[in-house]
Amino acid sequence: MKKLLYGAIIISGLISIVACTNQTLQSKSAKVLSTELKAVSPSLISRQVLLGNPSRYQGRISPDGNKMSFRAPVEGVMNLWVAELGDIANAKPMTQDTGRGIPTHFWSLDSRQIFFTQDKNGDENWHLYRIDIDSGEIADLTPYDGVQAAQMKQSEHHPGVVIVGMNDRDPKWHDIYSVNVATGERTLLEQNDGYGYYELDNDLTIRLAVKSAADGSNQVFSRSNNKWNLWFSIPFSDVQTTTILGFDNENRGIYMLDTRERNTAALVYLPIGQDTVEVIASDEKVDVSNVLFSPRDHRPLAYALNYIRPVWYAIDDTFTKKISQLNSQLSGGSQVLAQTLDNSLWTVFTDNSNQSPVYKVFNTIEGTLNDLFITQPEIDTLPLSTMHGVVIPSRDNLDLVSYLSLPLTSDPNQDGIAEHASPMVLLVHGGPWARDEFGFGAMPQWLTNRGYSVLQVNFRGSTGFGKDFLNAGNKEWAGAMHDDLIDAKNWAVSRGITTTDEVAIMGGSYGGYATLTGLTFTPDAFKCGVDIVGPSNLETLLNSIPPYWESFRQIFYQAIGDPNTEEGLALLKSRSPITHVDKIVKPLLIGQGANDPRVKQAESDQIVDAMKERDIPVTYVLYPDEGHGFNKPENNLSFFAVTEAFLGACLGGRIEPIGDDFSNSSIEVIHGADFIPGLAEHLSTINND
Question: Would I find Metal-binding among this entry's keywords (predicted)?
Answer without folding.
Answer: no
